[in-house]
Write a structure and sequence with these properties.
The structure is a single chain. The N and C termini lie far apart (about 95 Å). The strands form three sheets. This protein has a seven-stranded mixed beta sheet. It has helices at about 10-20, 30-35, 50-55, 115, 140-150, 155-165, 165-180, 185, 190-195, 200-215, 220-225, 230-235, 235-245, 250-265, 275-295, 300-315, 320-335, 345-350, 355-365, 375-385, 385-410; strands spanning about 25, 45, 60-65, 70-75, 80-85, 95-100, 105, 125-130, 135-140, 150, 180. The radius of gyration is 27 Å and the shape is elongated. It has two domains: about 1-155, Beta Polymerase, domain 2 (2-Layer Sandwich), CATH 3.30.460; about 205-405, cca-adding enzyme, domain 2, CATH 1.10.3090.10. A hairpin with a 4-residue loop joins strand 8 and strand 9. Helices cover about 55% and strands about 10% of the residues.
């Protein structure tokens, strides 16, 4: 590992702690990724200094966390997270609280490097880069698993999953992202313990959902989550649609949406959570909308009410913020407006802030057979031509619509017996 690969600000933190008389190591995903030749997203530091001591060393430091007390050292937009070595504690310790199902509710027990290792989740995340001699410290055979491409939990897998059920999602995310295989002992409990995720706050599950599907490996992650029965915990309504029509439209539509998002990330283009989440829940909205139409509701209000009902249920599983749910509603409700191609309505739609996302959604629907391909192509061409051509397209389209309406309104000739 070369220090040139390490963030300059992370090195500042390491050397400042060392100069102040404390031990300091890089730890976790950054060490793992550097050994794989990847560029880490962030850099985490671990030290024998307490959070309060770290706070005294750095003026640009802020202490956060209740379950785990951490120090965040700010350098502009970059934050270097500094944690104190974790230790073991007695069950009745005031610094550690454990729920009856095994979840850790509070854990501010400090210890040594040797103790800290066994509090890490996976062996490949328990590698420590020592700034004093530039070595990698490994107590848990992490290097061995790293070279073999195996993801293995430290300690008893079932116990570790019960301590923090989100580790099941992390196991899948890391396995897909790194191209590692799950160790059999790590894999086996996934089929039985998924229900523990229901006890996790929905806000935390939303954050994990973004990490799972917006890291460039969304399609593989989706398939793996479904394989272990965990996708339905995050999106119960979507899972219900998929289960009832396994090889039909919902699955094809989701696969296409995930492929598109993965490709955009690979091309270093921006992705927005609301677009992918809109795709996840679209079939649920459509099914409920159709049910409301059969009950006699107005077409527009049926879609609007279906969207509200589906989102109200979804936020119980993953706490999607209001700004995101509003954008999702916009994308869904704009779909019907693409069919209205009078001049005034077309220009109002094309100037809508959510037009581009809604248009991409329409194209996605057309590519998977749930929308008119000719309609999607019309809007594609309309955006590409100049003003005169746009006016010509609108005249031709409206002329065709009027002709169709006249033909439809003509009385049919009566049949005779001759």
């Amino acid at each position: 590992m070369s220090r040139s690969q390490i963030s300059e600000n992370a090195l500042k933190v390491l050397y400042r702690l060392k100069k102040s008389g404390y031990e300091a190591y890089l730890v976790g995903g950054c060490v793992r990724d550097l050994l794989l030749g990847r560029e880490p997203k962030d850099f985490d530091v671990v030290t024998d200094a307490s959070p309060d001591q770290v706070n005294k060393v750095f003026r640009n430091c802020r202490l956060i966390g209740r379950r785990f007390r951490l120090a965040h050292v700010h350098y502009g937009r970059e934050i270097i997270e500094v944690a104190t070595f974790r230790g073991s504690a007695d069950e009745e310790s005031e610094h550690q609280q454990v729920h009856e199902d095994g979840r850790l509710l509070r854990d501010n027990v400090y210890g040594t490097l040797e103790e800290d290792v066994w509090r890490r989740d996976f062996t490949v995340n328990a590698l420590y880069y020592n700034i004093r001699d530039f070595s990698v410290v490994d107590y848990a055979d992490g290097m061995k698993d790293h070279k073999a491409g195996v993801l293995r939990l430290i300690g008893n897998p079932e116990t570790r999953y019960r301590e923090d059920p989100v580790r099941m999602l992390r196991a899948i995310r890391f396995a897909v992202k790194l191209g590692f295989t799950l160790h059999p002992d790590c894999e086996k409990p996934l089929h039985d313990l998924g229900g523990l995720l229901l006890s996790i706050p929905n806000a935390r599950l939303y954050d994990e959902t973004l990490k799972l599907f917006l890291s460039g490996y969304g399609l593989q992650t989706f398939e793996m989550l479904r394989h272990y029965g965990l996708f339905g915990i995050l999106f119960p309504q979507t899972e219900q649609c998929l289960a009832s029509e396994e090889e039909g439209f919902p699955r094809l539509f989701l696969i296409k949406a995930l492929e598109n998002s993965d490709k955009r990330i690979a091309d270093d283009k921006s992705v927005t959570p609301y677009f992918l989440l809109s795709a996840f829940l679209w079939e649920s909205v459509q099914n409920l909308c159709n049910k409301k139409l059969q009950e006699g509701e107005n077409k527009y209000f049926a879609l609007q009410n279906a969207a509200n009902d589906v989102l109200s249920l979804q936020v119980k599983s993953t706490a999607i913020p209001k700004r995101v749910t509003q954008s999702m509603r916009d994308v869904w409700l704009l779909q019907s407006r693409f069919e209205q191609r009078s001049s005034a309505k077309v220009y109002r739609l094309i100037n809508n802030p959510r037009f581009r996302a809604a248009y991409d959604f329409l194209v996605l629907r057309a590519e998977t057979g749930s929308a008119d391909m000719e309609l999607a192509q019309w809007w594609t061409v309309f955006q590409a031509v100049d003003g005169k051509e746009q006016e010509k397209m609108l005249r031709e389209t409206n002329k065709g619509v009027r002709k169709y309406r006249r033909q439809k309104s003509k009385p049919r000739a009566k049949k005779t017996n001759e």
